[in-house]
Amino acid sequence: MAVNTTGAPSQPRTVAVDVVDPDLDADVRAVLAALALDPRPRDGGPVEVLVTDRPADTAAAGPTRLVRVAGDGTSDDDEVVLLPSGTARLVGLLSTPVESSGSLVAVVGAVGGCGTSTVAAALAVRASGRGRTLLVEADPRGPGIDLLLGSEAEPGLRVGDVRSDLGGPDPEALWAAVPRAVEGCGVLARARHVSARAAGSASGEAPTEAQVTPSGAALGAALAHRGAGGLVVCDGGRAERGDPLPGRADLVVVVTGSDLQGAVAAAEVARTVAGDVTRRHLLVRAHRGDPVHPADVAASVGVERWDVLPEIPAVRSVSGSGGLAAALSRGGGGRLRRLAGIADAVLDEGGLR
Hints:
The chain is an alpha/beta fold and 353 residues long. It has 14 helices and 14 strands. The protein has an eight-stranded mixed β-sheet with strand order 9-10-7-11-6-12-13-14, sandwiched between helices. Strands 2-3-4-5 form a four-stranded parallel β-sheet. Strands 1-8 form a two-stranded parallel ribbon.
């Protein structure tokens, strides 16, 4: 199974035509046919793009993008596409991706082993009640986030199956193909085996990490799901300079330790990796006897929104048995109510629930 992706949203999928002039209507539909776009009836439900020859103040409301058309020489409004001379402009408007309507949360670790996978899984499971939530394992060194959630045996798409060279994935097909952790939460995890496609090599050499789990595939799938209005939570693993994921996120959650190394590393991540992201949240992994107080870690990083992620004994046992999703989805989280509460707080402060 393969889903194609370039790491960018594809052209609009739902277009309606409300053109009164029959010649204009024919011109518009010819362009749609050339772009393989099947127009919906105007009253067929919400659409991303509406093409019309009606005035802007009388055009039916609802689309994300309104494209007004008119015949050559009949309008001097720069916002109106004149046809047939403006066919190329119409093609461009119909081919340009519609602005994303969903959200992307990137969970990154300032230091290794601080629990980014657990945090990402908790956010995704707790957010699943608000709509389609996709948990993406974007860390090429991750152990398989589906192991934490107990969905590793479920058939379906894995990151290694998503190709990054042939265009954008259909979000509906993507959602239908990924396994479910709980209702409303799909999981796109990295495979723990090398596919035949990745393993094939004329030289006989072992496949590279990029061949097995191309980073562009994970990011492309995430952007496609967000572009369709869904919430995406990405487990980015340990943050690295040059990683494109944090810069594309709407919210970056940085997880670090409550010690000097954790404070310094988190400040570096906030400055160089997530510096251009306006919404950042810090989670300080705290243990009894840690040398630095979490508040001091937050102050050194310079973030306003932060929480303490305490040591929760139940997390290790539940995650080890693959029961994290089931435990977090129960009411207040059961034995994991503290982890569930932190996830809820992050989602609430980020405006994601």
